[in-house]
Structure formats: C-alpha cells, structure tokens
Amino acid sequence: MPKMHLLTPGPVELVDPIRLSQSQEMIYHRGPEIRALISEIVADLKADFNADHCFLVTGSGTAGLEMAYACLTKPTDKSLVLTNGTFGDKLAALSKVYCSTEVFAQPLGKGWSLERAKEIIDNSDAQVFGLVYNETSTGVLNDAKSICRYAKSKGMVTILDCISAWAAAPLDLKDFSVDFAVTGSQKALGAAPGIAIVAFTEEMMLRAESIAARSFYLDMKKYKKDMQNNQTPTTPAVSVLFSVRAAIDYIKSKGGFEAHRRKHQLAAEKSRKFVESIGYKVFAEPGFYSPTITGFILENADAIRKELREKFNLVTARDFGELQGRFFRICHIGNFDDAHLDYAFDCIRKVLGK
Ligand SMILES: Cc1ncc(COP(=O)(O)O)c(C=O)c1O
User: Fold this and answer.
1) Which range of residues forms the domain containing residue 280?
2) pLDDT over 90 at 321, yes or no
C-alpha cells in the first residue's frame, strides 16, 4: 500500500517511534510489565488532567462516555445535553439509553457560551450535564470551562466529551469543574485507536460506588479494584497501550503537553489563514475556533476528497448530516508537523485550482 497522508480527525498518522512501539514482544496482562506500563501512563495522564483517577478502557472513545452514563446515572435521573453537531447529538442519544434526557441545540457552526447556556441550566432540574468540548464535525470549540463551572455550581454532575480536544485545548478538571472527562488514544495524543481514556474526580468514584452500574464491562467499581494494582478487569489492548506510552514519550520529547497544545493552536491559526487565502470562510463562529479542526463550506466536497486521495494520497474526512457533501475539514490533530500541513495545503490548492 502506498504511504497515505492522513488529514483526518483520528485515527491520525503515527510517527515511527509510536508506530513501531506496537510491534514489540507481547507481555502478559497480569505480569509486572503491564503494571509498570499502566502505572507510568496513568501517572502522566492524571497529572495533565489534574484528575484523582484515570482509567484506560479498551474500546473507542465512546466506551468512555458509556462508562460515565452507565455508572454515574440512575434510571430515574435526568440529564441535560447541549449540542451543536453530530457528536453532541450522539452524546444526547447515548444519554437517552441511560436516563431521561433534555437536549438543547445551537445551529451548526455556532458555539456554546455561558451566556447562551445559562438560562437553560437555570431552568433545568437535571442531575447530570453533558457537553462536547470540541465539536469535531464542524470544528467548533465550546466554552466548556465557563459552562461546566456553572452547571457544577448548580449541583449537576459534569461529563465532558473532550475526545477531539484533550491535549490540544486547555483542560484542568479541577479548574474547569469537570467531574468526568473522556478522550481517545487516536486523537490529539497521537497513539493508535483502541483505548478510551477517562479522567475523573474522587467525588465521581464515590458516586459510582453508590449506584448499581448498568454495564458489566464498564463497571467503574471493577476498574477501581484492578487499577489500584495497575491492571484492568479484562484483557486490555496491550499493543495500543504500548503506543500510548510511546505517544506520551514523543510529546515529552517535543517539549511536553503545553508545547503540544501550543502546536495545535498555531496550526489552527495557520489553517484559518490558509482557508481565507483560498477564498473561503471558516465555518466556526469567531471566538469558538477549534484547535484541531478547521472547516469550511465546500460545494462538491466528495469529488474533491476523491481527487485528493487518488492524485496525492491525501486522505480527508467525510462530512455529516446537514452538511453532507458540502463541507471540508482540515484536521490538525496529533502527530502532524508544519511539513505535513504544508503538503496538504499544496494538494488542496492544486485540486481547487487556487
Ligand atoms: C467529539 C467526539 N466525540 C465522540 C467521538 C467518537 O469517538 P470514537 O469513534 O473513538 O468512539 C468522536 C470521534 O471522532 C469525537 O470526535
């Protein structure tokens, strides 16, 4: 297979040390090697999230969201979900599996600010609050910090889908008043897909201990017991964990998580300038720009994607729902560097004749 250049929101391209880490010898998932591996990863993740607990769950990011709702809600609870795109809608649909759910939406491209959310939160009797930090389908970053702080001050449990935001946008659980945050290995971390990372407060562990989990596989109580011993209740995706370890090491070798976030911020600015330079308008409302995704309306987007793939081996992400076939996303997430982005911009210019 020829080398493909991924300009996708995840899985992302793997740099060699991360890619090759997956081919090392297998280890037993109950031995000292896995305990060392998990304890190192968890220490780094807990520090960056400022979390009391961090579990590594084998599954995609959605498994982490499912863990939150299965373990932190009772069937009699109500959950409030704010959405502004496909992934907010999916979070709302997931929430509905576990409890009654009220959903409020912003038009696509518009962000959730505290000003827009405040009255909804004031009028809600929900116990649980759910929000997507970075709406990947449109490239809109919601003001998770102000909104979660406010929802928490009203007594709600705050669940944040930061799947395409963590390690690219700022997030400190205690500072943001986020109770439970979820991301995935294949996103800004830049590892292979297959591990959901959940980070949460001690208060949430106590809450989970007082509620009957509505999942066998994702029971936080079982996880706690095994994670105390740096193991997981069931067999983890060991090779993906190797890549998670390698991805953290790679980030550290480039200056650490703050530098990684800065890299995303700069790439987002560069991508917005590029979009304007070829005569398009960034879709996200100013003030809500995403550090990982820059989107714009592009008629005939499917044909453009096809040409980019066939002529330049540049793989770009599909679009969704209302924007189907007329939206284009430049994804600057994970292991990319300037050369990678410049190659993508050059290919896009050629195909668009700009
Ligand atoms: C914001 C957001 N939430 C949820 C998901 C679903 O994640 P996964 O496919 O890892 O389950 C994604 C995937 O792109 C996402 O970007």
Assistant:
1) 5-11+256-352
2) no
